[in-house]
């Protein structure tokens, strides 16, 4: 089965998505949007020709260059999404991707309380609610719908939830992985390519094609050393009241860096050496990333969880107390040293840089060698690279002074008329979107009835849950959300209730004084039960409760109300009694207030209500501000990406038939390409925006063994783990006999009618002769067996066993009993075919 | 191993929870793999008596142990199994189960050691805190829907409802799929997913039967009843005690109460009636619930975006670590653990509150036989105090039971069982009577399938009684590499797998038989994960690096003293197919006598002549200076040929034929050979008769007379040799030449003679 591959590109020389077109289905992987280079409108235009063909969208990572375009696509091509396109990603990607996009879109002014607003925060949320969240090794089975297509995500070890996608149909096994890491990181497990013993995972072994790129490799230094350097950097830059600014992608390795920092601070504080250094975090989505981090412990490596459980049962992201969420402006007010994480989106970073001068001793730590979309950071990295000589290692600091033009957004609050107008347009837009969606869902529901078979896979009851989501989102006041959903719940329950009614189950028998002694002793008088050959005969009707009166129910509830009213007095009495312990009540009250406060803090921590379009809308204008920057710059590659050497070792062991490279030819690492080509791996560079067709050479097929043939097989055991049998049969195609359920025809291997072809020369044995094992065996049989020169095993001085080469073993000797014994011992180790 | 592969029986043993509720523990065995499901204790017993019957099974054989959820009757004996038995397998549970299990069992250790120390030995504790800590780190966690493969045992966890983290396991071994439900619930819940039906079918279903054929009230009614009964009690100034498991259903009830309290704030006097959640684990447990929001149902998961939307941050419910900080004034609602009122906070409160009439004990969970929770439901006059059983406390309080135990009722169970559509159903986790009723109800339900291939078998085994099922799956091999090319080269079009629509189906069947390809390859079965691969011999190594093809050569050396040509002669006499590879003495040239003689003389003194022959294609014989080496590749036919060659070589020196061959006097006239031969035959014939006659003489002595006289005249024609036996009146004439009795007037005599003749003939003429 052929498939076509297309790597998409917009002006910049970076891929913005990959399309795989199979005969009946088109899969889009990782649609990205670079907001600094391509305008919102251009982006829509670009995708408008592509989206109508797409059936499935997959995400492999939660950074902007892997899913940046998604909310935009979802909201502008809503009909396609509601009726057809299914989106899959692991749960952390749906969570972190949300945060990434909120930051990115707010930075671009596409969302948030700005006049340039195109989307509501809620629209982004809805887009991510549409994703079917998966677990690792949870197969999305679409075999019946799309010609045997199934997709499974495996851990890629780059960020929480980052995935290696294994897309397979009956003949192809494609692996898609962009960034991956073969070793354990601070919080994550290693990529699932290799199992714990270092062997390729059988599910991913021998892919027909691998889609990857060799453009970025991680640091070759082991994690331990990098962590040490990181800790040193923290120590050095915080010394003397200095501050450290770490720009990083919130959906990228932010959580990892945060955990490392927390680790460092925890240990320092534990030793009592350090004053509290606050962690500041600049991100539009506020503390949400951390909240999500707290709820995704199951995606992290178990070692981390254990490690932190030892520390008073915390998780590495339990940091509401030490973490402060600040806006770039508040950053300037910070007194004393601080560690500041900045979401790597343009406006966050530029604002931070602008305000940086007010802090003393600022060090900027760059943790990735990826070309940043933010010019200022790019410049710093460039300078660092220029200044670094052969001797400078990662983690070295350079002095950076420059005068840069920063593009800073200025906000002027809307007033009066303009505000009203803006609010009106927003309201109109919201109403229109809501109406559209309701309409579309109605249509989709009809369509969905025909594709119900699709809902079989777990976690795919998308349709129904989407509906509740839509209803719940009708109003934007969060409080009412709960009520709405509860009503839904009750509605559903009521629906059920009509079928299933109250039944009074007699629990006890009442023994009145006038019952006979016999009756008192044997309280149950069992009826004569009918017994058939299965036991008691059961009338199923009896077990299903009879229907009940609705009226009775409502009546009882109203009477209940009356009784409540009557008893209010009692309640008052109860309260009086309560007063007697005023003092202790005060304590309780205090405690309650404290708890209340904590709860509120927790809520404030990650609430992003301020980004609602109608919350103090502003006019957003970009201005060039010339700023003199002066700081230390440190580059330390802390990204969890496989290093070059390991990649060249691991790829050949996976035995891919073909490696397809995403991204421009120049960006690929020549060395790796060279090594892999030498190992007979077909390497293909995929040019941008062109359909490349690949034909499949089927190299595997499933054949069922006829039970009759199965009986004839002679299984022989080899070693510990395998049994083999030589099989000869005729292969026939069998079509399902049941015509009502047309399934796939299958190949069946049946026994031969004549045994003419069964005869084989029988000169080859399968298995390996291990001389040491043979020796042990013979010694057990009380023979003298010893090794004499060049790996020859001499038994009783009469028979010699020698391995000529890997595949040949010679038994040498005079005809004697011992010869036969040795021979049979050797033969036992092998299976004949 | 071949016996194991053909072994198609699946075995199930319940070590606990067979015809009882509590100490859930089951063993599955299939194809040499052993899986253990759950390791619980029986809540009604103490110490060793509460364990499943671990002595009945060798736990060291268990490969993996799966824990369905954290309840004590499903998980509490896990540290015992891991630390105090020879169990060596791996243990898996879901993330929330592990997180909660940790706190729950610590509590369990504490409670059991306090409760029983006074009466029983200290050693009677099943395990200690250290055991718990040590074993805890060895537990591995899995996520829902992720398929894990452990040496060929594939298993996937599915949501089971019931409590947070509860899982159903679908286990697949070599094509056989078993679904273990654990405790499960199909009800729509505020925070949990209801039990899922796995997308793949199952062959065996192990299902709980707690409620047997009983049916629940609809959930909505129960909720209403719950809130009403609580409302009316507190409005009368009473206290409500709800004994609950610290975790699990308690959280659901808290969600209900929280919602009710929010909605009826005014009726309840402005939230003046406090709700307490009393458990020393309360806060820790709530942390777990706040953390694993993603493991709950879609409703909660989708709503969860930030802390604001975390449903487990309650407004009306306060946590109590213990009763010290509890101010018992006025009405209150108390959710207290443990759930069966055996000891601890809930028991303490029960004893405190039960003498007052306006108070209410509200049992919401399932209560096991023999526990206080079960006892109190009988509304006894008095209850015994926990600390001193001799003291009794009067009971006047109200007792209500509204079950929120998240177990399926009959209807839900039946519906689920029908959806799973397994042909073998094993009932566990139910008291004997409800389970028996469920069995017969199920059988009645499926009675229409009786006698068909889809017949449903239902088992309700007692503890330690095996259930053995035969399972024959169709094996599917995956053809890899060259063999696929071969198949396709032969018949690419017809054998291409494709979807067949209804119309085509009939036609296809007809020609199916014509499109066949003879395939010869090697089936490799991995004993670890039951992968079956079909590969061609040539690229076996490519696909199974651990399997190499070995050529086994054998070589035997024998001393031969005779000349190579003799060896050649013998061998070429024996085998038709002899190829001479090397022949320095030219022995193989057609046996021309003179030539041989000549060569003999010429090479008489050269001893290192080499003769190399290949016999029957594969056996090589090298004769060189008194040594003959036979070399062959092992194989059935080759071995036989080689054996016979060795036999020839060993006897070649002494065989008469060799002597004949090597002696040169054999070249004389053979002109009269034929006559001589005939005479020889006659002679032997006569001598044989002579011997038989001798036998007769021995037998009959004087009475036997040989009459040879008559034939003297005519010597040329071989006349009959006759004898005569005279015993009294009886006379018998015997013709020895023809070996028959010519005449005899006595039957006994005749019989005797006949038998002697047959014996004689046997003796003289051996197989000719």
Automatic annotation (TrEMBL), chain A:
Chief location category: nucleus
Domain named Cleavage and polyadenylation specificity factor 2 C-terminal: residues: 747-830
Nucleus listed as a keyword: yes
Regions of compositional bias (Polar residues) in chain numbering: 450-477
One GO term of the biological process aspect: mRNA processing
GO MF annotation list: RNA binding
GO cellular component, one term: mRNA cleavage and polyadenylation specificity factor complex
Origin superkingdom: Eukaryota
Keywords recorded for this protein, A-Z: mRNA processing, Nucleus, RNA-binding
Protein name stated in the entry: Cleavage and polyadenylation specificity factor subunit 2
Subcellular localization, as worded in the UniProt entry: Nucleus
Residue stretches of biased makeup (Basic and acidic residues): 588-599
Ranges of biased composition (kind: Basic residues): 577-587
Gene3D superfamilies: 3.40.50.10890, Ribonuclease Z/Hydroxyacylglutathione hydrolase-like (3.60.15.10)
Record organism: Maudiozyma humilis (Sour dough yeast)
Region (Disordered): 450-491, 539-599
UniProt similarity note: Belongs to the metallo-beta-lactamase superfamily. RNA-metabolizing metallo-beta-lactamase-like family. CPSF2/YSH1 subfamily.
Compositional bias per record (Acidic residues), positions renumbered to this chain: 478-489
UniProt domain Metallo-beta-lactamase: residue ranges: 19-210
UniProtKB/TrEMBL annotation, chain B:
Limits of the Metallo-beta-lactamase domain: 22-238
RNA-binding recorded as keyword: no
Keywords, in A-Z order: Endonuclease, Hydrolase, mRNA processing, Nuclease, Nucleus
SMART domains per the UniProt record, alphabetical: Beta-Casp, CPSF73-100_C, Lactamase_B
Domain called Beta-Casp: residue spans: 250-376
GO molecular function annotations of the record: 5'-3' RNA exonuclease activity; RNA binding; RNA endonuclease activity
Limits of the Pre-mRNA 3'-end-processing endonuclease polyadenylation factor C-term domain: 513-767
SUPFAM superfamilies attached to this UniProt entry: Metallo-hydrolase/oxidoreductase
Protein location: Nucleus
GO annotation terms (biological process): mRNA processing
Annotated family: Belongs to the metallo-beta-lactamase superfamily. RNA-metabolizing metallo-beta-lactamase-like family. CPSF2/YSH1 subfamily.
Name used for this protein in its record: Endoribonuclease YSH1
